[in-house]
Amino acid sequence: MKHIVVLTGAGISAESGLKTFRDSDGLWEGYNIQDVATPEAWEWNPALVQDFYNMRRKSVLEAKPNSAHCALAQLEEKFKVTIITQNIDDLHERGGSTNVVHLHGIITRSQSSKNPNLTYPINGWELKMGELCELGSQLRAHVVWFGEAVPMIDEAASICTTADLFILVGSSLAVYPAAGLINYVPRNVPKYIIDPKIPYLPSDHFIKIEEKATLGVPLLTNELLNE
Fold it and tell me: For the chain, is the Cβ count within 10 Å smaller at the N or the C terminus?
């Protein structure tokens, strides 16, 4: 069975109504990134950071997977599929995909402030100050902040080396180390990129589908399932 590896970014979730990570003005939902998405921000004002991610989580839970998420899940009818996502939402899972690697964590879980390997499901959208892990430290959103290590990156790189076909969806390849994953895909493997604005690619060996994810992914899925 052929192994399809898919790398997804904010563009695929944007069509479900979730804002892309950073707007053109450099802000995320009206906040400076340094104020809500760094370990220093958590030290300075944990209540603000907690509230920020509570609002993001609420938005995620209200959003629904779109036709791109669902089309990627349909590929499992014929192929082994691994989705590596930069997104912190759970829309791939709710769209039906069964093998998803979250590079930057997932907002529907919490983690210990002392040990990031201790994670827990969150009941509902709100994670409150005073909710503690088993080590007695405050629970925070299970997301990777700027300045923190990306613990899943080595596993993701290893997965990319096993791809028989590679698809890049909705990513500008601006965030490292995730953007470097395409360098681990074998050269002779067919590679597709689906994006309304194709970013610069270090390799010209991509088949370019210059469409929104909700159009381009179902088109490619249909083509692959009917080969």
Answer: C
